[in-house]
Specification:
By secondary structure, the chain is an all-alpha fold. 78% of the residues lie in helices and 0% in strands. The protein has helices at residues 2-8, 15-21, 28-52, 55-81, 94-112, 115-118, 121-147, 153-163, 168-189, 194-219.
Amino acid sequence: LTTVLLVWDLEHKTRFLRVVFRPQSKSWLARGAFVLLAYSGLSGVFWLASVLGLGAVTTILLWPTVLVGFFAAMYTAFLFGQCEGRDLWQTPLLPVHLIVQALMGGAAVLALLPPPAGGSAQVLAVAKEALGFTVVLHLLMVAAEFMMPHATDNSAYAARLITHGPFRNWFWGGVVGIGGILPICLLWLMPCDFYNVAFAGVLAMAGLLIFEWCFVMAGQSVPHS
């Protein structure tokens, strides 16, 4: 699905074939395409084996799929790292932050599964703890990125656009409030039931979407001269 969405987003979709069959080995765009293809293939086979009840196959594929999934989650950090004119995207925290975001997304999806599909109350409890832990980690990494001094004026200016500039309402209201504080309150101050945990997952994903939008837009809003 990730690969399909990536290709669908391209203006000239046939150029994806050029990336696959005539890749530029030093480009993370090409490397990322192969990572996404590998993850899509492993995930598809893992899902099919689960549906068919092939327990031995799922056991073998579990950790390779997880590891490639981590690479699929964080390859964007290396792609951004090649955009040398965008200093905000050069943070060494980004690969780890993207993994945390992927885990948070997984916990949110698990929390959104209805009880018949999601399983027992134990599964809901795992989703609750995983979501709460990853939301806190996400907020700590956001704080480390935007509250600490920056190495260059370019990155400091981009960060200020987010915290005090045109993106400030989205950042403080959407990322910190809706996507951070509210989910934590729902998860740790309210009863552990499906509706509270699921709503916390929706809020966390909304906050993450807002954060990514702010991060991408502010990073390229800094003038080069």
